[in-house]
Sequence to fold (286 residues):
Amino acid sequence: MSDVVYLNGEFLPLDQARVSVLDRGFIFGDGVYEVIPVYSRHAFRLAEHLKRLQRSLDAIRLANPMTDAEWVQLIEEVIARNPGEDQSVYLQVTRGAASRDHAFPKGARPTVFMMSGPLVTPGREAVENGVAAVSAIDNRWLRCDVKSVSLLPNCLLRQGAIEAGAEEAVLFRGGYLTEGSACNIFVVRNGTLLAPPKDHLVLAGITYDVVLELAARKNVPVEVREIPEAEARGADELWLTSSAKEVLAITRLDGKPVGNGKPGAVFKIVHQAFQEFKRDVMRRAA
Ligand code: PMP
Fold:
C-alpha cells in the first residue's frame, strides 16, 4: 500500500506506524475518514473533500485537529513522499486513545492518520461491458451522510454482493433507492438522469456532484428526487459512481440485464465527459 504514511505529526514507513489498542477508532469505530483521488499528483476536488470532512467531524462532534491550509500541506506532502502519478489518499481522524467508556473522553488527542496507495480505476473491460450488482436492503444507520469509519454494515453488504458473483450491492430502504455499499447510484429512464437526493440516507459523493455537473454541461435532463424501487428495477441504465470507480455502468441487477445489458447511450456521454474533464483538470494543474 503506502510507502510512507503520516501518523500524529510524523512521517514513517507503513510497517512502523502504530496506534494504541485503546484508540476509539479501534474500540468503537469512533472516527471519520476521506478518500481523495490524485491524478498526476494533483488531489482532485480537494476543497470539496475537506468540506465533507468538516461536515463529518461536526456530525460526530469532534473538533477538526487542523486548518484546511494545514490539511492541504499535509496531503501534498503525503503525495510527494509516495510513488506513482495517480494515487488514492486515505485519511482518518478518530477521537483518540482513552480508557474504554462510551461517553467522550476529556482531553484525548485525536488520532490523525494518512496513507496513499495507487489509484486503481476500472479497466477497459469493466467500462465497456459494465459490472453486475445485486440488490439488498439498506440496513445501515440513519446518518449515512457521515463518512464514518464504522463500516461494518457496508462490509457485510459488499461481501454479500461478492459472494453472489457481483461487484456491488444496490441498496433500497423503505421501497426507495439509496446508494451502493461504497458508491452512489444513478438511474436513467427515458433519457433522463435520476439521482437520489443528498440527504441523511446517502453519502454526498464528490463524484456524484461531478456527474451532475457534467450531465448539465452535456444537456442531459436531470431529476434529483426519491427513486421508488420499481423505477430503479425498470431502469434503462444504472450507474455507480465513486472516487475510485469514477462512473461505471451496472449492466446486470440480480442476474437480469439492465436495459439491453450493455452500457447505455447516456452513460457513454457522461463517461467520456468525465475522462475529458479529468484531463482538463490535470492539464490546468501541470
Ligand atoms: N457512498 C458510499 C457509501 C461510499 O462509501 C462512497 C465512496 N467513498 C460514495 C458514496 C462515493 O463518494 P465519492 O464519490 O466521494 O467517492
Remarks:
- The chain has eight helices and 15 strands.
- The CA atoms of residues 2 and 235 lie 39 Å apart.
- The mean pLDDT is 97.
- Residues 265-285 form the longest helix (21 residues).
